[in-house]
Amino acid sequence: MVMNKIRILLIRSYNTMFNKYLLVTNIATCSVMLGLGEVAVQQIEMYRNHREKRDWSTVGRMMILGGINGPLNHYWYTNLDKFFPGRNLGPIVKKIIMDETIGSVMFTSIFFIGAGLLAGHTLNDAVDELKSKFITVYKADLTIWPVAQLINFYLIPIKFRVIFVAFLSFGWCSFLCYMSSVEVDKDEGEISKVSLKAIKEP
């Protein structure tokens, strides 16, 4: 009985936030999801390597990065619907094409460059990391997000779309956090399990 009342209260509070503070809600959700993605990656690493201490500074950086991406996501999806209104196949296909050719490229670039700068790397190093990992990430993006966005644009109301993407992207955020922590062999074009942090340490 008490738990049911709490659940109803939480749902009402969340709906109120949606209606009154949509931008703030989207920013907070993106921030939390990216932070949780990093926590999930670290949890796996802790289990595999028998490591006990979590790197909360990296979790914090990912949450900051999610907070930066939040408003960008908010305005991106809001404007997509303004430019291509309707839920017919034509507008949906156009939105998916725009999202994959512009949105995905933009958000992936912001993620890796932002993660590099927040970690203390130079802009050139951050750009080099983006170049070395972009193709791998973009290939994965193309296998997941067109179908996800088809559902998003066809079924989900506009005000819930950023939240839908944020929750759906928990696994994607974990993948991005993992990609942010590994190094690419430029000669072989393969991912090696060597973190940038480990490379910098003597």
From TrEMBL:
UniProt-annotated location(s): Membrane
Annotated protein name in UniProt: DgyrCDS1547
Superkingdom assignment: Eukaryota
A GO biological-process term: mitochondrial ribosome assembly
Pfam families the record matches: Mpv17_PMP22
Membrane topology category: Multi-pass membrane protein
Stored PANTHER family: MPV17-LIKE PROTEIN 2 (PTHR11266:SF8), PEROXISOMAL MEMBRANE PROTEIN 2, PXMP2 MPV17 (PTHR11266)
InterPro entries linked to this entry: Mpv17_PMP22
